[in-house]
Each structure stands twice: as structure tokens, then as C-alpha cells.
């Protein structure tokens, strides 16, 4: 019953790959700016050709990721881990060319570890710990030393320096290099703290969203379980009541023949009414028995929305012929829009109309507002009764409520479940001018789907 959450997991993995693509773009920008500042701003002699080659390789990987996100194939956790490992190797090569473990931005190895721990299961995170630790250890011993930041002085001036001046100059150079290293470590801490805080906040949002999805799934599963139990009970009741109704129908028919119309007109007329009500009960039990199980695809047919509204109102009029109805149809509608006229939805709308008619005074009637576009059918049913209790609005449709004289009971729960099951929405509210209002939104058949049904159906 929680199957509708499974596609969410696949979407999350693809979303992780998209975030990896974004983070790699940020890394490319940061590395490019750092190399430019180090070479042109600080005058550090770096192996530029090798550095730009590494940046180009990372760009190619990111281009592949961009193309991969546009393909419909499923993204796997192993694929994401493999790409993060490539990022680690690229970073290792960049750091190898710029001092290795002595580089002040060696903290950058924390980023792949953080990303792995957030996006992937625990086993991948521990593997990334081993990989980054090994690479860090190797860079301690094997690297291209980072040149010192020295002032540009003419060679003859350097030759004329006394040993004390030369020592003082070396101390100044060491201080500059140390200050640069401290600045790099400070920047690394600030950047890492901000990145960790950002990921923790995003992770918290994701967890809250998944908790809401799980709560909705549990509620839907519980509601479906109640519907199944009610359907089973309805089928059993229809079977048990079939025989007594048949017996009553036979006896009523015999009594109508014995009490002829010309001798007992009043009694005969009452028996005719009883027969009609028995036929209605038998028809309702037949529909209940047929609809007690799960919804079947063949139970619905494709109709124009305008024709479907006429059919719903026609069926409702057989039950409430004397109720006054004010029908409002928006002039801006798509006359070619079509809907799947599913039987349970029709009964749900009729149930809402019946409840509104029973709540409204006879002289006031009810209002029925209809509008639709290419995608959605919106219905608004308003009565002029006392309105709905506040506690009823809070739980309306979420669980069966105790039936009252307005008839708001199990039928409303089934109505809510049916509309939600088909991807629709239903809302209950009280109007300031008096009375209750029920708003229903139902998805319409997309024109592409309609074309497929015509072509292949």
C-alpha cells in the first residue's frame, strides 16, 4: 500500500546526481579563480599546463553528468559513488601539483566525504573515508613543493645583501608564507562550516518531507483498509438482503393483484409505491455488490464533460426531483474536454448533492457551480443550511463519522476516498453568508491519452 512512495526514491537518487553536478560546477569555479589569483595576483610559479589539464578533465566529467541527467535511464548509487571517486582523484592531482599535504586547502578532501555521507548509504561513506585518508597520506610524501611567496628583487641587489639582511629577508618570506597558510586554513574552516550547515539544513528538509510522505501514505493505507472492509461488508449485506427483498417483492406483487385498483384504489396505489421503493433497493444493492471490490477499468467510459454533468444531474434528479437547483456553468470552458465517467465518482458527486439538498430548506434549494479547462474539472456545491460543525470540518472524509440527520456519515468518507484515489481534491468549508460549501477538483483526460485510447482502443 506504500508503493506510491517508491518512485520518490528514484527521483531522490537523480536529484542527488543533479546536486553533485551543481557542486562540481562550484568547485570548478573556485579552482579556476584560485589558480588565477595564485599565478597573477601572488606571483606563485605553478605548473599551469598540468593544472589547466586537470580542470579540463573535471569539466569533461561534468559535461558527461549534464548529459546523463537528460537521459531517462535510472541513476544508481554506485554511479554516484564512482563519480565522487573521480572527483577525489582530480582533487588529488591538483593538490599533488600544488604542494600536496602542505597546501592550505588540503581540507577540500572533506567535501567528497560529506557529500558521500549525505547522499549515499553508510557503506559508501566508510569506503570514502578509506580512499580520502589513503590519498591524503600519499600526498604527504609525494608532491610538487609549493613555491614560496617571495618579493621580486633584482639579482644584483640580492648579491649585495649581507648575511644578516639575507636572514631577515628569509624570515620575512617565511612569515608571508605562514600568513598565507593561516589564511588558507581560515578560509577552509569558514567554507567547510558553511557547507556543512547548508547540507544539514537541506537534509533536515528532506527528512521532514519524507516523514510527511510516510504519514500521508499511512493515512492513505488506513483509509484504503477501511474502504476494503466497508466494501466486504457491503457485498455481504447485499447478498444477505437479496433473498428477503425478493420475498417482499413477491408478496407485494401478489397483494397488488388481490387488492385491485378499482375496488381498493388507495391501498393499490400504496402498494405500487412500495413496489417502486423495493425496486430501488434492489437496484442499489446490485450496484453495491458490483462496486464493493476494487475499482475496475471497464467501469468507466470516456465522455464529454458537458454530457457527463448532464448525466450526473439526471441521475440525481431521480432521487431529488423536488429539490430546487441553481446551476452555474462558467462560459470559459473547453467544450472538447473529456472525463472518464467512473461509476464510483458519479455516486460520490450524487452523495454530496443529496447531503446538500437534505441540509437546505426546501424554498432555498442548492447551488451547483461548474467550470473546467483542459486539465481539471472544478465543482462547487453550496447549501443554505446551518453549516458544518467545526470538528466535522477538521475530520471530514478522513474517517467515518457518526451519521446525523443530514446524512453525513460513511457515505462522505467513501466519497472523500474515491476522489482522492483518482487524484482529485475535495474541501469542506462554511460560508460567512450561511450554509456549507463543498469544492471538488477532478483531473480530466489528457488529450494525448485520449488520442491513444482512440488509436489503440
Automatic annotation (TrEMBL):
Pfam families: HATPase_c (PF02518). It comes from the Bacteria. GO terms for molecular function: ATP binding. The chain crosses the membrane at residues 21-44, 50-67, 125-144, 178-201. Keywords: ATP-binding, Cell membrane, Kinase, Membrane, Nucleotide-binding, Phosphoprotein, Transferase, Transmembrane, Transmembrane helix. It is an enzyme of class 2 (transferase). PROSITE patterns: HIS_KIN (PS50109). It is a multi-pass membrane protein. Its EC number is 2.7.13.3. Its main location: membrane. It catalyses: ATP + protein L-histidine = ADP + protein N-phospho-L-histidine. It is found in: Cell membrane. Residues 236-446 form the Histidine kinase domain. Gene3D superfamilies: 1.10.287.130, Histidine kinase-like ATPase, C-terminal domain. InterPro entries: 2C_sensor_his_kinase, HATPase_C_sf, HATPase_dom, His_kinase_dom, HisK_dim/P_dom, HisK_dim/P_sf, Sig_transdc_His_kin-like_C. PANTHER family: SENSOR PROTEIN CREC (PTHR44936), SENSOR PROTEIN RSTB (PTHR44936:SF10). This is histidine kinase. It comes from Methylomonas rosea.
